[in-house]
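Lay summary

Proteins are chains of building blocks that fold into shapes. Our project writes down both the chain and a compact code for its shape. Here are two examples, one after the other.
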Amino acid sequence: MLTLLKNRTLQTIASANFFTTLGVSLFNIILLTYAKNFPNPHWFVAIVSVVTVVPYVFGGLTGRLADQTRRKTNWLIGTKVVQAGLYLVLAQVITQQTVVVFYVVVAINFISDLLGRYGGSILTIVIQDRIGPDDRQQVMGLNASVSTLVEPLGQTLGVLIIAQWHDYALAGIVNAMTFIGAASCLLAGRSAIQSTPKVAVRPRHIEAWPVIQRVMLTTTRMGAVSYLGILMILNVATMSIDAILNLMFIDLASRMPVSYSVAILMVNVVFVTGSVLGGITKNTWFDRLSLFQLLLAAILAPMLTYVTLLVVPQLILILGGMFAVGFMSGKLDPKMFAIMMPQIDPHLTGTVFGTISSIVTLAAPVGSVGIVLLYNLVGATAACSVMIGVSALALIWAVMAHRQ
């Protein structure tokens, strides 16, 4: 671990990721607060919620663009500078709280998020290019852990800026500074993220889906439709837990040993801890599992957590379940990408992983909204029961697909 932490490529990527995640998480909470102050706030908040998710749908497109970029390092640094410039422009207009300005602000944030997806695809290519196969899983886990740890920090900073100064323009300037910080880290470590000739040449046009099908079959012994469908369901199950807990803790307030806000904080801290430990540890019992066995464990974690919420909704058990969900998520994603990387042509890394990311995250927002509606209309028992059923469906699908 200590040797890996001295790797210059990892240091450069992780430090840039620190500033980028800080800025993105900071302004997402700012944007929601900004939208909430308009008349008919539900409409404007809904627009923000949708627009912040939409860039993930373009993962395949931004990934292909990253694959076809010649001077990847220059463009990566350039995107951070452009993002900083966008938020400096935003800081000049956001003080005017009109509907037109709102849509301009949302559009700027959307463009910045698209550039962030493009830059993220380039960084994935850099990891494949500059990090050895034995270290890729841990590097990707460490980099993901940085995002997981920094996101609550960025949200807290955003809330602090609004609470103390009520200044949206200041938030825009601070966000611009975070992207300048990211660009500075990339510039300082430029030699460590420079592409080698094997990924520097513009590739010929190759369709991503046949490659994904082949890679999935080779690494998971499942068809691409089955494996990605299972991951999509797993993502819905994992992301819906937060939505249910936010509502359930209100209903359980009289039986909780701590206040509502403290309970939410404890859940977030435990989940982050589990995710980080899952990402950075390398020699645990879970690391000996095959990708299929790890997938089953990752499905069982949220499923058992929903059973806990339904049968014995005690805080200590809920925290244990959330730790397991975070830990298994931190294990599965880096291992999956690390195993797949050697099977993918370096010219298609961004396209393939971007497409996979788009497919897997596509249903999560819809699932979360649906489960909240079900909870409010029918109740906690129905919401938890449905999610147990959804998790069981993913488990059965995985077993049957693996046997074929």
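And here is the second example, written the same way.
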Amino acid sequence: MEATQKHIIQDGSSMFYHQPSVKQMDISVQTFDSYCTLESSSGTKSHPCPNNNITSSTTSFSSNGSPVSHSNNNNNTSHLSPDNNNSPLSGSSATNNNETELTSSGSSIYKALRCKDPTGPELLTYMHILYEACPYFKFGYESANGAIAEAVKNESFVHIIDFQISQGGQWVSLIRALGARPGGPPRVRITGIDDPRSSFARQGGLELVGQRLGKLAEMCGVPFEFHGAALCCTEVEIEKLGVRNGEALAVNFPLVLHHMPDESVTVENHRDRLLRLVKRLSPNVVTLVEQEANTNTAPFLPRFVETMNHYLAVFESIDVKLARDHKERINVEQHCLAREVVNLIACEGVEREERHEPLGKWRSRFHMAGFKPYPLSSYVNATIKGLLESYSEKYTLEERDGALYLGWKNQPLITSCAWR
């Protein structure tokens, strides 16, 4: 789901520095589309899939050299058709995984999926649809922003290091909140880290993010500076982060740490290395948002079951806003979720980038790195409850040991916590 962190954000300006009721917190949504108009950019051509039928997809894979079997193809995939309302795991996600097991070529399928991106604007549209269909990403943005605002409320110089800046949409509400802060706004500096591959969806380099956030900050009266770092998190070193003395430091890990290989994958253990590196910076707060699933070191069968249970709940929750046979639903699944599911189930070793851990394991890693919990405030909890009022009552919110768990029908799907 981390691919969708490139869009809109609810305006939480009043949330951070006042104490409104839950009803008052139900503020209008600031769309990323209007945020993007602060700086126009040109479109980008790509190589969209000719259609969403799995037969043509496997034919395409075969023409690229992957050993794909076509025997009984229609019979094996028909029960997973998007038109079959008995299957919550609809569309391309389930079908691709069925093909994965039939052909033993999951790694090839995953690589082929990565080569079948839509155009940049189309991808943004699909991610926008997913963002609106479920509250998981708004939950992550708002909870992290609330923790950061609380941690820097008395600071004059604030430096935010975002380990997955994407489109920069998370910081719209925080910049507005800081602009409205009693006593005047602080000077804000954001270091935005992002995998260079994300420039495709962004339709340009990280300088576009800096320009848009800079114009927004100017409108809000917030002194602002942006530094973009187009590199993978495994390449991050302290000297690349530009930390300065006298700044209050906030570090943001939004659905990104599970991509870091740990000791079970490489001797470098970038997952724990990155946490130790951040601890050396003595940050005021570190925010962590992650999917609540246990797939990192699990063998195939338990990992398969865990993945299916997790994503079945996700897809079922999407049903509330988006019908399973809706054309855009199929596009959303194919371009925003399918690759995650295929990678989780079909890939091993360094090829498996999706390596989720439950919050209990993240707690152990943070404690070993020297961090202490920074409990989320009651105002953050109230804001999330207000956010959920515009969604189904089947979403559940639980506070446990200072962390928030957002789930579907009491099954936790995503968690948010903070450390210092």
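What can we say about the second shape? The chain has one domain: 1-39+54-61+81-420.
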